[in-house]
Specification:
- The complex is a heterodimer of chains A (115) and B (111).
- With 115 residues, chain A is an all-beta fold.
- Chain A is built from no helices and 11 strands.
- The radius of gyration of chain A is 13 Å and the shape is globular.
- The N and C termini of chain A lie far apart (36 Å).
- In chain B, strands 2, 4, 5, 9, 10 and 11 form a 6-stranded mixed beta sheet that branches.
- Classes of the chains: A mainly beta (115), B mainly beta (111).
- Chains A and B meet through strand 4, strand 5, strand 9 and strand 10 of A and strand 4, strand 5, strand 9 and strand 10 of B.
Chain lengths: 115, 111
């Protein structure tokens, strides 16, 4: 049981390049999330998904796209990277029962630098 | 919009001390509150989750309380150890289990 895994762990991009971050979970969770963590800002929600084939915007969605083609995977895409997207990205997942037992489990993070 | 505040931002205590970390939130309509631990350069580890109907949760030397009506939670760490040194994050859960995080309290426990 690997929990939540993220690929890659580190990446350096040049402005304008694109990339995809992969999140995978093996806990059969319905809900998955992408957060970014910046110094002094805390973690902020980018996009989330409440089930296979569904996605929704979070607090800071601009510049990112997501897809949830399979229940266990949640992809975060940057079409044209900007220096402001330099951050640590965390994926998380949780059960779907609203109002209770929806503890979130986090992956180890991806450190992205955009030059 | 939900806002979560954690006080203090940083704390240094000698080994063996009992300590309290504070978390406050502006909207009391939450489903639950989670406390996380984050080590430098690492991901988040869930410590305790308190459902909105509960008042407290305990795990080993950790005890978290929740006063939903006043928008406050505390994390109590008993007999602190150097291994407890980390950043502690508080987060509250709203609809679709989306979490709103505080900016954390950086704890250092010295020998």
């Amino acid at each position: 049981n690997a929990g939540v895994t993220q690929t890659p762990k580190f990446r350096v991009l040049k402005t304008g390049q694109s990339m995809t971050l992969l999140c995978a979970q093996d806990m059969n969770h319905e809900y998955m999330y992408w957060y970014r963590q910046d110094p002094g800002m805390g973690l902020r929600l980018i996009h989330y998904s409440v089930g296979e084939g569904t996605t929704a915007k979070g607090e800071v969605p601009d510049g990112y796209n997501v897809s949830r083609l399979k229940k266990q995977n949640f992809l975060l895409g940057l079409e044209s990277a900007a220096p402001s997207q330099t951050s640590v990205y965390f994926c998380a997942s949780s059960y779907s029962k609203a109002g209770s037992y929806n503890e979130q489990f986090f992956g180890p993070g991806t450190r992205l630098t955009v030059l | 919009k939900q806002e979560v505040t954690q006080i203090p931002a940083a704390l240094s205590v000698p080994e063996g001390e009992n300590l309290v970390l504070n978390c406050s939130f502006t909207d009391s309509a939450i489903y639950n509150l989670q406390w996380f631990r984050q080590d430098p350069g690492k991901g988040l580890t869930s410590l305790l989750l308190i459902q909105s109907s509960q008042r407290e949760q305990t795990s080993g030397r950790l005890n978290a309380s929740l006063d939903k009506s006043s928008g406050r939670s505390t994390l109590y760490i008993a007999a602190s150890q150097p291994g407890d040194s980390a950043t502690y994050l508080c987060a509250v859960s709203g609809t679709a289990s989306k979490l709103t995080f505080g900016t954390g309290t950086r704890l250092q426990v010295t020998l």
